[in-house]
């Protein structure tokens, strides 16, 4: 089976608006291609997931009345593929004029189709998680900023706008620490269209204390870099892991939504519960 490429997807192209259910709209992209660029071959050296939120989900009940919901979607990072976000949006649009028996039926359809897509038709080793939020629960959806020490307080000079891992450093000759660092200055660009992607990133670690100024400059260096959200977070994880040599590490980014979807990748060196899919104020 030939591999899909980002250039072959619907990104940056005029697309037909399909409002009747069509799982064929989902466009899987292999994770392996970009992982090879950062030295990952075979089994991945981390665990984690991609947390999606779909804000524009609607379908018809059996009497033709529109229904709406929010969807929280959890994609395991060990899956062989991601789903290109525009195709995901087009797929969700295909529910708009499609009757379903219940919200549970919609959830199970989403779970089955997305699980098949991220394993690209192969055996599903770990399924996609789907949770629907009904309108009467919308006001219970919290807003919370990422917890941690704010790196953006630092008055640093920034001159690098392509990923520069050499900016990273740590105090290897001092006592190890455990801390959580946060920046809201992460910006990258879509791999295909070049459109800006805005995010906040949280780095929690134990080990040699990371130089905060260098870390902030490194995160800013993604500003003109073209890569999908999941790929940026894995690049950050691998650069920090390699350069700063923590004993434990977790990297989590929350990106602002585009086309009614936000994508929030999380990668961890050790088993733990994934973060709650709670949006920030910018999202």
UniProtKB/TrEMBL annotation:
Q: What is this protein called?
A: NADPH-dependent 7-cyano-7-deazaguanine reductase
Q: Please name the catalytic residues of this protein.
A: 190, 197
GO terms under cellular component: cytoplasm
Q: Name one GO molecular function term.
A: preQ1 synthase activity
- Positions of region (Disordered): 263-283
Give the pathway listed in the UniProt entry for this protein. Answer: tRNA modification; tRNA-queuosine biosynthesis
Compartmental location: Cytoplasm
Which GO terms fall under biological process for this protein?
A: tRNA queuosine(34) biosynthetic process
């Amino acid at each position: 089976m030939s591999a899909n490429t980002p250039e072959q997807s619907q990104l940056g192209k005029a697309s037909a608006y399909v409002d009747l259910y069509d799982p064929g709209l989902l466009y899987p992209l292999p994770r392996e291609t970009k992982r090879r660029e950062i030295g990952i071959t075979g089994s991945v050296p981390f665990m984690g997931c991609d947390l999606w939120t779909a804000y524009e989900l609607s379908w018809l009940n059996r009497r033709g009345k529109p229904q709406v919901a929010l969807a929280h979607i959890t994609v395991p990072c060990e899956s062989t593929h991601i789903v290109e976000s525009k195709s995901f949006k087009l797929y969700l649009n295909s529910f708009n004029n499609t009757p379903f028996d219940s919200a549970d039926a919609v959830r199970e359809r989403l779970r089955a189709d997305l699980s098949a897509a991220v394993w690209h038709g192969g055996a599903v080793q770990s399924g996609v998680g789907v949770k629907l939020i009904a309108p009467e629960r919308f006001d219970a959806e919290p807003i919370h900023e990422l917890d941690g020490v704010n790196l953006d307080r630092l008055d640093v000079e920034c001159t690098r706008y392509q990923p520069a891992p050499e900016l990273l450093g740590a105090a290897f000759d001092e006592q190890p620490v455990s801390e959580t660092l946060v920046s809201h200055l992460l910006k990258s660009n879509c791999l295909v269209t070049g459109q800006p992607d805005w995010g906040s990133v949280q780095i929690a670690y134990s080990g040699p204390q990371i130089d905060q100024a260098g870390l902030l400059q490194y995160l800013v260096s993604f500003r003109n870099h073209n890569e999908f959200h999941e790929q940026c977070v894995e690049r950050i994880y691998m650069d920090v892991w390699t350069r700063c040599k923590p004993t434990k590490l977790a990297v989590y980014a929350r990106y602002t939504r585009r086309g009614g979807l936000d994508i929030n990748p999380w990668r961890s060196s050790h088993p733990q519960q994934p973060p709650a899919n709670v949006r920030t104020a910018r999202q």
